[in-house]
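hey
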């Protein structure tokens, strides 16, 4: 992969799909241990829910069943 004249790179489809990077996703480059990492940018939410966003991703297949179980129904 090459960096284009304007500093742009194309993220391969399999990487975008694996990490949920969609068009207009906010990402950031981070230097870590001599490497440059690209990662989704953590957004700060003013409503206090920022820590909860994505916490159940991949763990809940059926929302109705999950809610019934957590509510003891």
């Amino acid at each position: 992969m090459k960096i284009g004249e304007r500093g742009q790179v194309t993220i391969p489809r399999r990487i975008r799909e694996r990490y949920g990077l969609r068009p207009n996703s906010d990402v950031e480059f981070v230097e870590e241990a001599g490497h440059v990492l690209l990662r989704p940018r953590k957004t700060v939410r003013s409503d206090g829910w920022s820590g909860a966003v994505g916490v159940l991703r991949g763990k809940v297949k059926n929302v109705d069943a999950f809610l019934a179980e957590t509510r003891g129904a």
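DSSP finds two helices and two strands in the chain. Residues 63-70 form the longest helix (8 residues).
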